[in-house]
Structure formats: structure tokens, C-alpha cells
From TrEMBL:
<comment type="pathway">
    <text>Amino-acid degradation; L-arginine degradation via ADI pathway; carbamoyl phosphate from L-arginine: step 1/2.</text>
</comment>
<keyword id="KW-0378">Hydrolase</keyword>
<feature type="active site" description="Amidino-cysteine intermediate">
    <location>
        <position position="388"/>
    </location>
</feature>
<dbReference type="GO" id="GO:0016990">
    <property type="term" value="F:arginine deiminase activity"/>
</dbReference>
<comment type="similarity">
    <text>Belongs to the arginine deiminase family.</text>
</comment>
<dbReference type="GO" id="GO:0019546">
    <property type="term" value="P:L-arginine deiminase pathway"/>
</dbReference>
<dbReference type="GO" id="GO:0005737">
    <property type="term" value="C:cytoplasm"/>
</dbReference>
<dbReference type="Pfam" id="PF02274">
    <property type="entry name" value="ADI"/>
</dbReference>
<keyword id="KW-0963">Cytoplasm</keyword>
<dbReference type="InterPro" id="IPR003876">
    <property type="entry name" value="Arg_deiminase"/>
</dbReference>
<protein>
    <recommendedName>
        <fullName>Arginine deiminase</fullName>
        <ecNumber>3.5.3.6</ecNumber>
    </recommendedName>
</protein>
<keyword id="KW-0056">Arginine metabolism</keyword>
Length: 399
């Protein structure tokens, strides 16, 4: 077991956090999928198989795969974690005092594994334990309304925590459907014995920052997408805290279009080698970056400058190679939507990608990159690829 440490996007991956999807995906219906940020209703068994295959590819590469629900169950052995879990899961504003009380004592009686299942998959009103007396809340809610919301996007472990150097930042997620994911991830890092020694980055800030927007371009150089999820205030407070902890010397705040297709920076740009990115051609020449550097107690902001130039300069490279997918605009748009750009490097020049993005993968191979293909027909229905579905905990340093 190695100590958590991540200073790049591509250093040999040793330990990664995934979440094997399950019951929470079974909660998705055509009525709630938009709100729960899924574009289709996944075939759950197949999604699980696809996810197992993803984990198997990583293990074959020598990567230790940690599963969030297992860590959470183990963390819940600590009574403080249990209390915090109940606090985050039971919302008295929604349930009223009486149902909230009943639910709390019901959850308190559960073993760790069952409790984890409920925290992740949620609970409907009809699944609540029976109670004496009359409750208006129970009578007026529909049986399938959620008393505890399910967390189908927990699958995308990238977004709720980011290791930067030897510290973990538990992020502040922007969308209501995902806010509670941070609370669960926080329990793991606060109470699981494996992480007892870990220090935090970013602290208890509340301005939204999502891990899909954070790219560790090189040791000390962090790019942060600012768009639908991470806000300017989020990028600024992350930069401030990284500078204060001496975790970065440059932060690039990168404006991205506020659309579903480009919800995070990693939907349009990921690193594939220590000096190379895979980028969506439509934005390649337009992407810009504000350059943030520490200045005394404050921050100096310059730019915006072209993203590629600003990145190369901060990374001390002559230039950043771009894998030019060279696709016609329609194919590029289709493959970008299907997470063609959302690759996970397992070492410099070797990555995991969805097999369906045939053209992008072929171009990567032309550029000398090894592509380990996985199937993602069901996993992709939540709009996330291999990078979104993984949170690296240990990567070997690059140099
Ligand atoms: N890092 C990422 N690109 N994550 C993708 C998250 C997808 C998820 N359904 C959401 O909308 O939040």
C-alpha cells in the first residue's frame, strides 16, 4: 500500500477510486433522469458488467482498484462517521420532524453494508419503516417519491474528490442532484483508517469546484475549467488554497462553454502523455486561460491567453503536443458527446478509452498512443467516460 500522491495526469497509475454502479441506477426513470443528470435509462446489469470490465483492465495494468462502497462501509464502523452519514442523508426539511426521527432510528439499526446501500441508492416513501400514528408527510407523498435521493452519478468518482500532491480536496459539487456525493466521499477520507493520515486541500470551501474540471497538467501546474459546474469563485478559491499550501505555482482558469456537452474541462481535453493532450478540434484554437500566480498574500491574474500557449509556458515545455483528432466536424461532435475526449491515462502514452469512439481512438494510435478499449454503451448514458469514472489516489511521479 503506497501513500496517496498525485502530481500529474499521466504518471503510472497505482491506486484509483471507482464506484461500481448498482441499485442507484435502478431508480432512474424517464420522469427523473433529467434531474438526475442521465441522458437515458441504463440497462443496469450491463452497466455493471461494463464497469467490472473497466476495473479488470485497470487491474491488468497493475492498478489497485478501490471501490467507494466498500470504503464507505468500512468507514461507517466509526460511530462518528455514522452520525455524519445520518445527518447528510436525512433531510428534515423534506421529511418533517416525525418521519426524519423514525428514519434516523431505522438507519441507526442497520449494519454498515445495508446503510451504505441506502445512502447510495436512496429510499422511497414506500420503503420507509412502518410507524404508529398519522403522518401528513407520509400520506401526501407518492409511494415512489424519494425520502432519500439516490446518487446515480456517484459512478463519476472524479468529480467529488481530487488528490493534488499528497492532499485530497473533497470538492463542492454544483448540481443539487450531486451535492450529497461530497458528503459520502468526505466520510471515506475523514474516517476510513487507510486515509487517517491524509491532509486536506481546499478545506471547507463552498464555491463550486468539480474534479472533472481539474487537470494536473504538470507538478505545480493546475488547469481548472470554469463553466456549467466550477464557478469563477470556485476556481479562485481553489487557486488561493493551492498557493497557500504550496501545491501549485500556476493555476490556469479556463472558460468552457456552459453546455451539457462540455460540462467539465475533461469532456473536451485530457492529457495523454506528459507533453500531449487530446482535444476536441472545435475548441482547440479558441480555448483560453487566465493565468493565476501567487503574489504576496494575494493572487496575480493575467491573460486570457491561448490555452495551449499558457499551458506549455507554465509546464516549461516548448509546446504542448495536441493529438489532432483530425475528424470531420460531425464525427468529432458525435465522438466528443460520447466521451471520446474523456480518456484515463494509466501511464504516459497508454490510456483507457471507450471503444465506440472509433475515429478518435484510431487517431490516438496514429500518434503512438496505446489505447485500451472498454465498452461503455450503458455506462456512457450518464455522460461520462473513463476519466470521469475514476479518481486517482496514487500515481508515480513523472520525473
Ligand atoms: N468529469 C466528468 N466529466 N463527469 C461527468 C459527470 C456526468 C454526470 N452525469 C453529471 O452530469 O454531472
Amino acid at each position: 500500500m503506497t501513500t496517496p500522491h498525485v502530481t500529474s495526469e499521466v504518471g503510472p497509475l497505482r491506486t484509483v477510486l471507482l464506484h461500481r454502479p448498482g441499485g442507484e441506477l435502478k431508480r432512474l426513470t424517464p420522469r427523473n433522469n433529467d434531474q438526475l443528470l442521465f441522458d437515458a435509462i441504463p440497462w443496469v446489469d450491463r452497466a455493471e458488467q461494463e464497469h467490472d470490465a473497466f476495473a479488470a483492465v485497470l487491474r491488468e495494468q497493475g492498478v489497485e482498484v478501490l471501490l467507494l462502497d466498500e470504503l464507505l462501509s468500512e468507514a461507517l464502523r466509526d460511530p462518528r462517521a455514522r452520525t455524519a452519514a445520518l445527518h447528510s442523508g436525512v433531510d428534515e426539511r423534506r421529511l418533517g420532524a416525525e418521519v426524519a426521527d423514525t428514519l434516523c432510528s431505522y438507519l441507526s439499526s442497520m449494519d454498515e453494508k445495508t446503510l451504505t446501500g441506502v445512502l447510495v441508492s436512496g429510499m422511497t416513501f414506500e420503503e420507509l419503516p412502518a410507524a404508529e400514528g398519522q403522518s401528513l408527510v407520509r400520506r401526501m407523498h407518492q409511494p415512489h417519491d424519494f425520502a432519500i435521493d439516490p446518487l446515480p452519478n456517484l459512478l463519476f468518482t472524479r468529480d467529488s474528490s481530487v488528490w493534488i500532491d499528497d492532499r485530497v480536496a473533497v470538492t463542492s459539487l454544483a448540481m443539487p442532484a450531486r451535492i450529497r456525493e461530497s458528503a459520502l466521499t468526505d466520510l471515506v477520507y475523514a474516517y476510513h483508517p487507510r486515509f487517517a493520515q491524509s491532509a486536506r486541500a481546499y478545506g471547507a470551501h463552498s464555491a463550486p469546484v468539480e474534479g472533472g474540471d481539474v487537470l494536473l497538467l504538470a507538478p505545480g501546474v493546475v488547469a481548472v475549467g470554469v463553466g456549467e459546474r466550477t464557478t469563477p469563485a470556485g476556481a479562485e478559491s481553489l487557486a488561493r488554497s493551492l498557493f497557500a499550501d504550496d501545491l501549485a505555482h500556476t493555476v490556469l482558469a479556463v472558460p468552457i462553454t456552459q453546455t451539457r456537452a462540455s460540462m467539465h474541462l475533461d469532456t473536451v481535453c485530457t492529457m495523454v502523455d506528459h507533453d500531449a493532450v487530446l482535444m476536441y478540434p472545435a475548441i482547440r484554437d479558441h480555448l483560453t486561460a487566465y493565468v493565476l500566480r501567487p503574489a504576496g498574500e494575494g493572487i496575480k491574474v493575467s491573460g486570457p491567453e491561448p490555452f495551449l500557449r499558457a499551458s506549455a509556458e507554465a509546464m516549461e515545455l516548448d509546446r504542448l503536443r495536441v493529438v489532432d483528432t483530425g475528424l470531420d466536424p460531425v464525427t468529432a461532435e458525435r465522438e466528443q458527446w460520447e466521451d471520446g475526449n474523456n480518456t484515463l491515462a494509466v501511464s504516459p502514452g497508454t490510456l483507457v478509452a471507450y471503444e465506440r469512439n472509433v475515429e478518435t481512438n484510431a487517431r490516438l494510435e496514429d500518434a503512438g498512443i496505446e489505447v485500451l478499449r472498454i465498452s461503455g454503451s450503458e455506462l456512457g448514458s450518464g455522460r461520462g467516460g473513463p476519466r470521469c469514472m475514476s479518481s486517482p489516489i496514487v500515481r508515480d511521479p513523472l520525473y
